[in-house]
């Protein structure tokens, strides 16, 4: 017999197990198994708690180890070892990298790990080795773990079957949107931006309040816990899923409804995001694009130079690489005008300084940097998450609905767990009460029994108790036989019965369950809610119209001689008596003074007119709000001004409310006037357009909006005034220089021009001089004249009063705000300013220190303030 062909019995058994399969089919099956493993077990978060498996395992392992917010820090190596040992059979670097990211304040909006040591930086520096760093759970992580030991979520066996781990966490916050998520699976990826906790809570509450019960779809959960349940019974019950008489949560709210509260992503690094339409599209479809920009500021330095200062970066931008990229652009001469680049960042925050040449146009350089660097980039939203272990593209509403459904399950299971515990206690208390009611017989029965088992049996038979009740009686201490202890047991029984009835009522009412969810959300917001970090701009990049996060309110807008502007709350200046010293105004540069002061609404349009005759357009809300004493921001942060160009005048109007406005009326220092149709200024480019042609070193001093049927009053420095109908000035194009409005005497020039409704008799001309003298004069004293005349006396100007600073048209109500060259300010009631004739010099309205003089005046209208 040939031994080479002999088949051993064990080989025969092995061959019986071999199957012939097509390699294509086998490869397809193996690849799909691998893909689903990556999708479900690694890369994608669960829609309910917003965590990937490795993140969930890290948080739970730290919780099990007692690394709580109020405990001491422990080595990260201990956490990684515990996670690898019990839950995550992969490499240690994957666990530590996930832990590090959860501790980085520039990666997560609300970090889940409180780290101590080097956890990396925004410059891309890697964290120190895990043997050097320490960590514990952050306070907000306890919201993810709340009630986890009350059977609120299912547990599963770990990879070895030796330990149990939660399938998900019973989070009280919508963590998927709160901290966002990013991951690359097989054939799909997810990229969800972080959001503001307060906004998410407000949006979820609106979703809950618009609850729509779907009666045909009921909640499916494990059977309710029974009192005195054994561990074996618990395992068996968890696999027995039954339908509850509670509808699955759905809401009638739309994405547009939610967007009123959830304004958009809120990145941990701040910055600015653009385009409301793109944000809504991302929320409505689960896929979208958000344009992010850094926060930059243009600062003026010595020698007339400017710096571009970067203080906040777009999300996930590496600062060191950004600085290197800017340096490369300068070397390659793709950016002109940069002389120096410095990273001055410290523990207080980011500060990257780009120093410019004196001849450089700051806004142009900044726009070039936006174009060629990561100062501006897109965040591509792709909201993919696991729903019942299946990947789905989810809208904003779907994510929040899934979270509320999860909270429904948690609240139901928590209450069922507590109900079972209460029923256990109630059962024992009922037995103790029976024993106390028959205390003598109970004692006698126990004494007559030879051992504990016989005593237990006799108690059960004689008093119709259960084994559990009998054991509780036997365990009862003698001191509990006192009358006071009897009352305690009766009171406790009453309290327990009340709690039982309350929980039963909750479990029968979907509305009560939702109210608990809502109340817990509000409580979480009160503990962890904070202000939004990322600003939102309504339009696309370049439109610079800030989103309506800014409340529509009245404000004061101040502009200084050296080009600084700021917006202040109206309440910054309280009303005072005539002749006072006022309060301190803005802190300003040497030889600086407020030249323009206006009462505005945050939703007004501002037209800025410059000394070169150009006009720029902004919204009032574009100007940041400052305190009364703040210096403000340089105007070049907002306008793309040319070299040597300065703002000469600005005026504001609300295009939605003041629809009767037809023209812009101009007055120059040398007495020239013109009017141009407002429609000519509708499409103002970012770098401005021509507004008026100026000749012979003339300067624009005043602009007004008119209806086409008003009178104009021009006032000069030496106290002259002329009134004429605006119809005597024909409409002209933007490039025209205008016609003569008033003939000026030597050394005199125009300081202002105001519009007046010709038929009104209740108006006054309020004049203010350099040394604080002022008065009101009824406008009926100023008769209409032909354009081009020499005018009438408006106020008597002497060495004692100084020249006129300004003249405004007022009613006999409201307030005026006076500001001096040294920053002194006072707010006065118009009624307290005396009404005098044209030829008088007025009375003292404000007293100055030293050589200080008045620089500007603004009217605060009573009606508008009362509407605020």
Molecular structure report:
The chain is an alpha+beta fold and 868 residues long. It has four domains: 23-211, Topoisomerase II, domain 5; 295-374, Gyrase A, domain 2, CATH 3.30.1360.40; 408-528, Topoisomerase, domain 3 (Orthogonal Bundle), CATH 1.10.268; 554-867, DNA gyrase/topoisomerase IV, subunit A, C-terminal (Neuraminidase, 6 Propeller), CATH 2.120.10.90. The strands form 13 sheets. Strands 22, 23, 41, 42 and 44 form a five-stranded mixed sheet that branches. A four-stranded mixed sheet has the order 16-11-10-19. Strands 12-13-15-14 form a four-stranded antiparallel sheet, with helices on one face. A hairpin with an 8-residue loop joins strand 14 and strand 15. Helix 8 packs antiparallel against helix 19 (510-528) and helix 16 crosses helix 17. The model is unreliable at 543-549, 578-584 and 863-868 (pLDDT under 50).
The major β-sheet equals:
5 strands, mixed
Q: Which structural category do the helix and sheet elements fall into?
A: alpha+beta
**Under the CATH scheme, which class of the largest domain?**
Mainly Beta
Query: Any low-confidence stretches, pLDDT <50, length ≥5?
Result: 543-549, 578-584, 863-868
The CATH superfamily of the largest domain appears as DNA gyrase/topoisomerase IV, subunit A, C-terminal
Helical content band: 25-40%
Measured distance between first and last alpha carbons: 110 Å
CATH architectural category of the largest domain? 6 Propeller
How many β-strand runs? Answer: 44
Shape descriptor: elongated
Q: Per DSSP, what share of the residues sits in E-state strands of 2 or more residues?
A: 25-35%
Number of helical segments with 4 or more residues: 20
Number of domains: 4
Average the pLDDT over all residues and give the rounded result: 87
Rg, Cα atoms, Å: 38 Å
Report the CATH topology name of the largest domain: Neuraminidase
């Amino acid at each position: 017999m040939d031994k080479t062909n002999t088949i051993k019995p064990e080989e025969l058994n092995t061959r019986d197990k071999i199957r012939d399969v097509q390699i294509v089919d086998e490869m397809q099956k193996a690849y799909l198994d691998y893909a689903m493993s990556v999708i479900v077990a690694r890369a994608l978060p669960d829609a309910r708690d917003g965590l990937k498996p490795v993140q969930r395992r890290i948080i739970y392992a730290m919780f099990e180890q007692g690394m709580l917010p109020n405990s001491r820090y422990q080595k990260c190596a201990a956490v990684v070892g515990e996670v690898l040992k019990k839950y995550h059979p992969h490499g240690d670097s994957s666990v530590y990298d996930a832990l590090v990211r959860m501790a980085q304040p520039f990666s997560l909006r609300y970090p889940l790990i409180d780290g101590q040591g080097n956890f990396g930086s925004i410059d891309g520096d890697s964290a120190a080795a895990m043997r050097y760093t320490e960590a514990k759970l952050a306070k907000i992580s306890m919201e993810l773990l709340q009630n986890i030991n009350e059977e609120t979520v299912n547990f599963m066996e770990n990879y070895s079957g030796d330990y149990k781990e939660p399938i998900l966490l019973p989070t009280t916050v919508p963590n998927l949107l709160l901290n966002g998520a990013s991951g690359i699976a097989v054939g799909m990826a997810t990229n969800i931006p972080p959001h503001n906790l307060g906004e998410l809570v407000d949006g979820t509450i609106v979703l809950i309040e618009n609850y729509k019960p779907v009666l045909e779809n009921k909640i499916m959960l494990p059977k309710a816990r029974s009192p005195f349940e054994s561990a074996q019974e618990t395992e068996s019950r968890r696999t027995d899923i039954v339908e509850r008489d509670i509808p699955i949560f759905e809401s009638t709210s739309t994405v547009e409804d939610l967007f009123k509260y959830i304004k958009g992503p809120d990145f941990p690094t701040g910055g600015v995001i653009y385009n409301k339409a793109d944000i809504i599209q991302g929320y409505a479809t689960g896929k979208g694009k958000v344009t992010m920009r850094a926060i930059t500021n243009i600062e003026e330095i010595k020698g007339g130079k400017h710096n571009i200062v970067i203080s906040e970066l777009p999300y996930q931008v590496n600062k060191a690489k950004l600085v290197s990229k800017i340096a490369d652009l300068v070397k390659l001469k793709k950016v002109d005008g940069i002389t120096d680049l410095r990273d001055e960042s410290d523990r207080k925050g980011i500060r990257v300084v780009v120093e410019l040449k004196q001849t450089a146009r700051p806004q142009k350089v900044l726009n070039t940097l936006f174009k060629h660097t990561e100062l501006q980039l897109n965040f591509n939203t792709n909201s993919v998450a696991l729903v019942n272990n299946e990947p789905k593209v989810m809208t904003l509403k779907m994510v929040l609905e899934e979270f509320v459904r999860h909270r429904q399950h948690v609240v139901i299971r928590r209450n069922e767990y507590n109900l079972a515990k209460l029923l256990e206690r109630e059962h024992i208390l009922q037995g103790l009460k029976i024993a106390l009611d028959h205390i003598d017989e109970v004692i006698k029965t126990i004494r007559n029994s030879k051992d504990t088992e016989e005593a237990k049996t006799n108690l059960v038979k004689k008093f119709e108790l259960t084994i559990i009740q009998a054991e509780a009686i036997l365990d009862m201490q003698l001191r509990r036989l006192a009358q006071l202890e009897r009352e305690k047991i009766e009171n406790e029984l009453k309290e327990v019965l009340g709690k039982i009835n309350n929980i039963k009522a909750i479990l029968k009412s979907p509305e009560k369950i939702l109210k608990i969810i809502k109340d817990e959300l509000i409580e979480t917001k009160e503990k962890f809610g904070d202000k939004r970090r990322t600003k939102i701009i309504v339009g696309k990049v370049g439109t610079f119209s800030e989103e309506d996060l800014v409340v529509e309110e009245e404000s004061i807008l101040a502009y200084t001689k050296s080009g600084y502007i700021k917006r202040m709350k109206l309440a910054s200046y309280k009303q005072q008596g005539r002749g006072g010293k006022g309060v301190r105004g803005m802190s300003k540069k040497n030889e600086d003074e407020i030249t323009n002061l206006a009462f505005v609404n945050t939703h007004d349009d501002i037209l800025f007119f410059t000394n070169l005759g150009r006009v720029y357009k902004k919204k009032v809300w574009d100007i940041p709000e400052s305190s009364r004493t703040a210096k403000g921001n340089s105007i070049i942060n907002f306008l793309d001004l040319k070299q040597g160009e300065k703002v000469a005048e600005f005026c504001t109007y609300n295009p939605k409310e003041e629809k009767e406005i037809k023209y812009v009326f101009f007055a120059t220092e040398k007495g020239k006037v013109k009017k141009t149709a407002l429609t000519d200024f509708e499409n103002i480019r970012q770098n401005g357009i021509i507004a008026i042609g100026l000749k012979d070193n003339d300067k624009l001093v005043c602009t007004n909006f008119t209806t086409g049927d008003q009178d104009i009053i021009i006032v000069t420095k030496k106290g002259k005034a002329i009134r004429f109908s605006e119809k005597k000035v024909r409409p002209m194009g933007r490039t025209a220089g205008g016609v003569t409005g008033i003939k000026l005497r030597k050394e005199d020039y125009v300081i202002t021009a105001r519009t007046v409704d010709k038929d009104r008799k209740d108006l006054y001309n309020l004049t203010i001089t350099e040394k604080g003298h002022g008065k009101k004069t009824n406008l009926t004293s100023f008769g209409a004249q032909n354009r081009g005349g020499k005018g009438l006396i408006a106020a008597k100007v002497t060495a004692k009063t100084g020249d006129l600073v300004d003249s405004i048209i007022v009613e006999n109500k409201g307030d005026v705000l006076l500001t001096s060259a040294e920053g002194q300010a006072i707010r006065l009631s118009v009624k307290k300013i005396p009404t005098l004739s044209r030829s008088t010099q007025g009375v003292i309205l404000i007293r100055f220190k030293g050589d200080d003089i008045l620089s500007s005046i603004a009217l605060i209208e009573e009606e508008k303030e009362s509407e605020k």
